[in-house]
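Lesson 9: reading folded outputs for more than one chain in a single document. The general rule is that every protein is listed as its sequence immediately followed by its structure tokens, and records are never interleaved. Here is the first one.
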Amino acid sequence: MYYLKRYLAFQIDVVLSGFLFAPLLVLLTFTNPEFVFIMKSQIFITLTYAIIIISYFIIMDLIAGRSIGKILFKLKIVSINKEELPKYRILLRDLTRIIDLIFLIPMFFMLLNKNKQSLPDKIMKTLVIGDLEVSSSK
């Protein structure tokens, strides 16, 4: 159930960040007609979307301490000791998410380790756990 909750939370966040991505492309297309030619580049679109997804996570973590997907599924980012993290550590973790977005393989990394950590979680020594796990560990 944990993997499903985490997967669905991430998918919700990707969809929500897509709502930011689409208007940006429309705005750029209308303000700069040459942009249509740039948009044909798959690399440009992928990099732009990756930047928007990471920006979404950074903004949500600054505002709410976690993404909307994590809020809906009652998930929280904590240290490996299950202690609250300062915002700067969560933001650094967000920046390491580029690894997930570029390679996708690290997403499967969490299936192969006992702490259910993605590669960015392993790098930053963090866990994603349910809200109840935080309160019960204190």
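And here is the second record, again sequence then tokens.
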Amino acid sequence: MKYLVIGLGNLGRAIAESLTRIGNEVIGVDVDQHKIEAVKHTISGAISLDTTDKDALNTLPLNEMDAIFVTFGKDFGTSIQTVAMLKNLDANKLVVRGISPIHEAVIRSIGVTEIITPEDDFAGMYASQSLFGKRFKQWYRVTDTHHLYKIKAPATFVGQTLQTIDLEENFGVRLVGIERPKEERNLIGLKQIQFSVISKITGDLTIEEDDLLILFGKMEVLHKLAEI
């Protein structure tokens, strides 16, 4: 697939290089020549130009891209102007880094639907990790208020059925899946742990030691679960 990454700061460079590593064709764009030099050997191509200049922006193969990332982290004006011109040029799918609530409101008003907020995402992940400690495995933002969490099952749950625990009634979160470990031998006979997902959740299902619970809910209700 083909991607255009506009803005080669820390986030933009990380996105561009990650997409390249998994086999995609990526063009990076930034007005700063030093940033171009830093990535020109690690992605498919890097171009120095001013993306607030419509004529310059129009020289890029916009309609050949599967998605265009706009990742400016500080320059509100440059981000808005770039996004507005891309929309005007009928560019394909846009993914834009949100800088502030006002910035997000503006770019949504001109038709952007995919907004990434790495600072907020890191904060949410760190807060979840702090709350659950070693039990924390993974966090994913679904909406501004609701998130998915993967945690190791508390010891007090082990041996109890889901009907007895009643996560929704007692803790305000919904169980959407369980990852259960199983020891298997690989091709050369060595033992290794593989996780299988139990997606059919029934009340008579009993929690086992080392089960990973996949939960959906609001962060603020997780304190009761973290305290047990």
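What the second record shows: The CA atoms of residues 174 and 216 lie 5 Å apart.
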